[in-house]
Specification:
This protein is of the alpha/beta class. Helices cover about 40% and strands about 10% of the residues. Strands 3-2-1-4-5-6 form a 6-stranded parallel sheet, with helices on both faces.
Length: about 190
């Protein structure tokens, strides 16, 4: 059993990052650095999520944070983007500092089909530095298979009705963009061609 606290850096303090900050604080993870891109630079991340200050300010320069606290950090939490290519450079910087990486980039959950070269590169990089990379994010396979998993335990099923509800108010602008909300059909076709 680990006796010392887990030390973490959070990258992204938006909707998902704010949730991650709260979960880490709830589970006694010591946040040693926080990096954001736009809003709230210079603000205490405890206050950003509506809690007491924790004396960790949101900074803009990821390299400066990694240089300052990278040697003492166990894990980097990347809550910035959904595509693996979008987080790969930052992930590599963390891995090179021997920091384990957790990302909400759900494509990283099983990237061997969509980005096999990048998957192999990141896998090799993690092995070289002796760390791991784990992807969470929204796993469609879970809720897409939930009905069939439940029906598999039944003797007979005559009807399946499933509604997939996605509460976007908790997800932030990246999810809205990925779902093409507010875009025309033509814009959707051009982007997904």
């Amino acid at each position: 059993m680990r006796k010392e606290k887990i030390k973490a850096i959070i990258f992204g303090a938006g909707t998902m990052g704010g949730k991650a900050i709260g979960y880490m604080l709830d589970h006694d993870v010591e946040i040693v650095g926080a990096v954001g891109r736009k809003r709230n630079i210079g603000r205490d991340i405890g206050e950003l999520i509506g809690r007491a200050p924790i004396s960790i300010l949101l900074e803009k320069d990821a390299d400066a944070v990694l240089d300052r606290v990278g040697d003492e950090t166990d894990v980097a939490i990347l809550t910035t983007e959904s595509a693996l290519e979008q987080v790969a450079l930052l992930a590599k910087k963390c891995i090179a500092k021997k920091i384990n990486v957790i990302t909400i980039a759900e494509e990283g959950f099983y990237p061997w089909i969509t980005v096999p070269d990048l998957a192999a590169e990141l896998d090799s990089y993690c092995k070289q530095y002796g760390v791991t990379m784990y992807a969470s994010g929204i796993q469609d396979i879970f809720w897409s298979c939930l009905c069939t998993d439940l029906v598999a335990a039944c003797n007979k099923a005559t009807k399946i009705k499933s509604i997939n509800y996605l509460p976007l108010e908790y997800m932030g602008p990246v999810a809205v963009d990925e779902l093409h909300l507010g875009k025309t059909v033509q814009a959707y076709k051009e982007r997904t061609a």
